[in-house]
């Protein structure tokens, strides 16, 4: 089977810093707790992609090492919930 050159191009995903932080925190939890990711995602190929996303987020988010990280994460979660609620009620969320 011949591969397209586009198969070699990276896929870029754009997230707000809040979404990236919340996702990174969740991914860290499920990838570091023994067996948790395996229980959620039995497919090893999918887990490989999840680990790649988790690693990329960890490298890109310098704030995860900040002393006030927990506070920043809590605020990002609140904003994310508020944004989701706005969309659910017909708001633009932006």
Describe, in plain words, how this protein is organized in 3D.
It is a single chain. The protein has four helices and no strands. The mean pLDDT is 87. It has 94 residues and is mostly helical. It is globular and about 50 Å long. It is 62% helix and 0% strand.
What is the multimeric organization of the chains shown?
Answer: single chain
Question: Which stretches are low in confidence, meaning pLDDT under 50 for 5 or more residues running?
Answer: none
How many helices? The count is 4
- Main sheet summary: none
Which structural class should the secondary elements be placed in? Answer: mainly alpha
Secondary structure: helix percent: 55-70%
- Span between termini: 44 Å
| Tertiary shape | globular
Explain the layout of strands and helices.
Layout: H1 17-32, H2 36-40, H3 44-60, H4 69-88
Helix pairs in contact: 1-3, 1-4
List keywords for this structure.
about 90 residues; mainly alpha; 4 helices; globular
Give a brief rundown of this model:
The chain is mainly α and 94 residues long.
